[in-house]
TrEMBL record:
Gene3D superfamilies: Glycogen Phosphorylase B (3.40.50.2000), HAD superfamily/HAD-like (3.40.50.1000), Trehalose-6-phosphate phosphatase related protein, domain 2 (3.30.70.1020). In the N-terminal section; belongs to the glycosyltransferase 20 family. In the C-terminal section; belongs to the trehalose phosphatase family. InterPro entries: Glyco_trans_20, HAD-like_sf, HAD-SF_hydro_IIB, HAD_sf, Trehalose_PPase. This is Uncharacterized protein. Pfam families: Glyco_transf_20, Trehalose_PPase. GO terms for molecular function: alpha,alpha-trehalose-phosphate synthase (UDP-forming) activity; trehalose-phosphatase activity.
Amino acid sequence: MKILSTALWPLFHYLTWSKASDGREEKVNWEDYVAVNTQFAQCIASQYRQGDKIWIQDYHLLLVPELLRALVPEAPIGLFFHVPFPSSELFRCLSTRKQILTGLLGADLIGFQTFSYARHFISSCTRVLGHESTPLGVNAAGHIASVCTIPIGINAQHVDVLRNSPGVIAKVESIRETYKGKKIIVGRDKLDVTKGVIQKLSAFEKFLEMYPQWRDKVVLIQVTTPTHSNNSGLESKISDQVSHINNTYGSFEFLPIHYYHQDVDPDQYYALLSVADLALITSVRDGMNTTSLEYIMCQQERKSPLILSEFTGMAGSLSAAMMVNPWNFAGVAKAIDTALSMPLEDKITRHTQLFDHVKNNTSEFWAQTFVKQLQVIREQPFQFSRTPLLDYQKLKADYDKANKRIMFFDYDGTLTPIVSVPSAALPPKDMSEYLQILCDDPKNEIWVISGRDQEFLEKWLGGIRNLGFSAEHGCFMKQPNSDNWINMLEDVDMSWKNDVLKIFDYYTERTQGSFVEHKKSSITWHYRLADPQYGLFQAQECQNHLENALLSKLPVEVMVGKKNLEVRPLAINKGEIVKRLLALSPEVDFIACAGDDKTDEDMFRALCASPVGDSCYAITVGPSDKKTLANWHVENSEDIVQALGLMAGAANGQ
């Protein structure tokens, strides 16, 4: 898959594209990536058996979690990132950013090497997809994708055996004899710009310049291993830099840098790590760096220090290493001098802490920890409970045989998709046509129960004959075949709105992109157009402010909606309206109710004790694992319109 080397690998390692493109090649590369991920998902699904756990590794298969969720919704799915995850500002450069994040969020558990990588991922989900995070992870329209940080380890016991093999011991003696009397600095990296070899050489040159007392006393043995990519230009640049440093600070008898561009056999590799007086790792961006862990295991006798780039994935775990910024050549040079001059007591203290981490956080421990967390998540009721997909054929059959039907529909997110600007949520033409057909059937009583105000509902749905309305979450009602709105809160004191408005205005002034929506019975603060993270932060602050300043004194409640806060009277809600309407129609033998957010759960709660049994369809819009009281789910508002069309066809006798 070409996209791995041309887009994903560079992006995840903070490398951007330097040449313009018309997008045709990228489109082909993306289609190949989708095809391969689809094949993997289908193959895994065919092999899956009840009780299995699915664990996907790395960035090659980022779409598989979502694809598998559709094929085997009951399967526990985990994914671990072995590479860095870039900041949201950089990740947004990817043209397929939404598809990749959506694919990832199909997983139950997503693991990262460091907390910063996990934080970047959550931030990207918020900024790109608009999903809010919770203490558990990312809330993707009701499905919670948990996020964890589990540093990868190595097989410490296996490395311990290898470093004590006869072949390694023999090479250790040979290297010590070759570099007798010299301090040995060791570096082993893949030939890749992200590994920071150029920066390492520049820092070593600065070290020889700043600390002349070390000249002719220190040797840097640098090994670069070939990769599948064509990096001949980088190898040439490294060779030139090595030649320059050796010509400047070397002699006929001694060269300060010994550079090898080749694969090194295990005996030679572990011998180098064992004899080193210092390991120097200066990656400019890295996920897991096994060299650092293997070096620590090989230093059980010498206890030599480790210099580690702060940009590696291991930096958060190996806190006893000497952290450096590889771009600060003088800083790295100073760290080299400090490490080579370090007293034995300090070396022992640092190595003891590093060794304890490597010994206790092995690759086996990493795998067991991830699998256990995946199992725990799936055992939690909110994760394991899944609402079945709406059975359209059963819906049609129950609708056909019913003598008296009543139906309740939310508007935003149910009859129409959620949009950034509330006034732009206009009803689709086919939806209005289906509603009219249903309303014309004398067996039907149809209601739209919405948070919208009277004016909006009248303007866009008022032309539908025999349609009942409940506006502002039940505060105003208009019966079918009536032109009069009934104020359900006529005797309720609404003077509290001025106090709420002052608080909302305070946060509107300080939150760019937010605005206040005035309704007759409530007042709403929207932050959908604000910066996602800052908007959420301000919403939480505003909610706390409202609860502390007003709620204990006034008969109101704060409703947390989709990118908004609404303050409304306590006296009524959507659920109360549903109860009243059902009480007025005791003869109904078919009920359908659809909604997508928290306010609609009041309606579903009112239907829990419905007398019509299986002919009661409480339908939530969202994923199957969304926490809800509904007994059916659909994926989006288009599916609700499809259900309307199905019933409308039945009403016409089709």
